[in-house]
Amino acid sequence: MKLKVIAGAAVVVLSSLALLSGAGAQATKLRVGLGYIPDVQFAPFYVAEVAGLYKAAGLEVEFQHGYTSELYPLLAAGKLDFVVGDAEDVVLLRSKDAKAAPFRFVMAMYQSVPNALFSKADKNIKTIKDLKGKNIGIPGKFGTSWTSLQAVLKAAGLKESDVKITELGFTQLEAVLADRVDVAMGFVNNEPVVAAARGIKLNVILAGRYNGSPGNGVLTTDGRLKESKSVKAFLEASQRGLAQTISAPKVAFDAAKKYVQGLSDDRLSVLEASLPLYQSPFSKTEGLGFSNPNGWQSLLELLTSTGRLTGAVKRGDFYTNLYLKPDIQVK
Q1: What is the pLDDT of residue 24?
Q2: Which one of 50, 123, 185, 262 is at 20 to 30 Å from 253 when CA atoms are compared?
Q3: Does residue 323 lie within any of the structural domains?
Q4: Are residues 89 and 223 in the same domain?
Q5: Are residues 190 and 269 both part of a single domain?
Q6: Confidence class of residue 17 from pLDDT cuts 50, 70 and 90?
């Protein structure tokens, strides 16, 4: 019965969007970079396509997957219209060269970073104070994993010299389980989920409590924002895809199966672990997809304090909420 109600609501949404976009109008083609490979983490965008939200908004959306390091140059060159990436990337790239990287963050998919420190239960690492003297695994000294670890150490009153940092590449779970490190920085919707499926208990410390960055979201360029009608149409449909993912994760998961080859049902737990990241007190007030200005200020201060960002910058240089539809919430 619940699914029938959701489906009915979707029809109403589609009808409303169709009226707004103008039935029979030629579709605007948009190219969207989603990062790395097709994965259930992109379910809000997949469901927006499968449910017809983009089509009803007068859009023809094409997804392209690849490493963000490959997608960002395509975005800058106008060969992609949007890319899903990190707020941190926008700050570091744009502050370095705003002409080469005229990026702006226009919709938050996550309301906080998904990074998390995880360790075997018998290590008894339950708080950030317990990290002193420990061997901490990390993919490398780059990206949000590194920024989150810096934030955690700062909050714990620890210096890098108070711990041992081991660069592992993306083998954190195996390193923890084999006791090659005491604890590692991963993602709350990845390693802890995989371990739980194996019946392994981990202690998990959420990095978002200490790294206030807005996390992942939709990036575009200053030039693309001049085409405000299609930008607003894409973002509103994506916001509604986000809402449908939260309200009916199994439906969204099934939509993802159309894009993720061989997606097994046990990966539903990964999507379910992602759901809390989509909302925050701020988004529940403003609307899904809105990013908190305080989070941007926190990110700038953190990157400045660690020496990764220099010079005078303003948070408004890197993001805008102006193209989002207010008050889109989970029904």
Answers
A1: 56
A2: 185
A3: no
A4: yes
A5: no
A6: very low
Domain endpoint, select from 209, 225, 253: 209
Instruction: Judge if 204 and 240 occupy the same domain.
Output: no
Is 324 a domain residue? Answer: no
**168 with 138: CB under 8 angstroms?**
yes
For the chain, give the percent of residues with pLDDT over 70: 93
Q: How many domains does the chain have?
A: 2
- Residue 228: exposure state from Cβ atoms within 10 A (0-12, 13-18, ≥19): exposed
What pLDDT is stored for residue 36 in this prediction?
85
The yes-or-no verdict on residue 4 having pLDDT over 50 is no
Average pLDDT of the chain is: 92
* Segment 158-190, tens digit of pLDDT: 999 999 999 998 899 999 999 999 999 999 999
Residues 224 and 89 in one domain: yes
Q: What digits encode the pLDDT tens for the residues 51-80?
A: 999 999 999 999 999 999 999 999 999 999
State whether the Cα torsion 168-173-174-176 is positive or negative: positive
Tokens of 54: 């983009």
CATH code, domain with 46: 3.40.190.10
Q: Is there a single domain that holds both residue 57 and residue 88? A: yes
**Whole-angstrom Cα distance, residue 306 to residue 39?**
32
Residue-by-residue DSSP string for 281-322: HHHHHH-TTPPPHHHHHHHHHHHHHTTS--S---GGGTB--T
Question: Which is more confident, 289 or 331?
Answer: 289
Q: Are residues 79 and 190 in the same domain?
A: no
Note the pLDDT of residue 12. 39
Question: What does the pLDDT read at residue 311?
Answer: 85
Q: For the sheet containing 59-64, what is the strand order?
A: 59-64, 28-33, 82-86, 216-221, 103-108
Residue 307 within a domain: yes
Q: How far is CA 197 from CA 200, 202, 249, 270, 276, in A?
A: 7, 11, 19, 10, 19
pLDDT tens-place string over residues 278-294: 999 999 999 999 999 99
- Residue partners of 323: CB distance under 8 A and separation at least 6: 106, 107, 225, 228, 231, 232, 235
Between CA 37 and CA 140 the distance in angstroms is: 21
